[in-house]
Design the sequence.
């Protein structure tokens, strides 16, 4: 039976992000900053994330976003992770996410050689090594799902 190529686009996003986050935590190559346990992901949030491994999930999400659409910068990802600022009795308005968390996660991906700065457009693009690693994780998800069916 010939195996077909599996990419990140072929698997469920939640499943991919959770699997890649577990992989990042298991490898231990990601440095967790001191401020990770008290930092909020956006100014409009009332509390920091309840998951202690939130930074691994944010890194995995950013890796997937760069994979799908490279050339975007921190500002684009701020808007992607932004949300509704609740203004009490006044109407809600959209607010961007914090750029420091996003920038730190992108730098960690750069140190892992998953993404690089695009010299032409600016922003970040996926490297060949990063594409191979993410596709390998996507393939393991599909193989696990297929073995569970049989």
Sequence:
């Amino acid at each position: 039976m010939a195996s077909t190529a599996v990419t990140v686009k072929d698997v469920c996003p939640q499943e991919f992000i959770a699997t890649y986050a577990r992989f990042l935590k298991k490898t231990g190559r990601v440095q967790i900053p001191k401020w990770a346990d008290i930092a909020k992901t956006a100014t409009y949030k009332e509390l920091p994330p309840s998951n202690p491994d939130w930074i691994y999930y944010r890194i995995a999400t950013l890796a997937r976003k760069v994979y799908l659409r490279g050339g975007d910068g921190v500002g684009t990802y701020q808007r992607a992770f932004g949300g509704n600022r609740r203004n009490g009795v006044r109407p809600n308005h959209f607010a961007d996410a914090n750029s420091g968390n996003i920038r730190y996660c992108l730098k960690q991906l750069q140190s892992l050689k998953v993404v690089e700065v695009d010299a032409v457009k600016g922003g970040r693009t996926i490297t060949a090594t990063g594409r191979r690693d993410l596709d390998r994780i996507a393939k393991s998800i599909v193989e696990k799902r297929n073995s569970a069916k049989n």
Notes: The first helix runs from residue 13 to 27. The chain has one domain: 8-149. The first strand starts at residue 83 and ends at 85. Helices lie at 13-27, 54-68, 74-80, 99-111, 128-149.
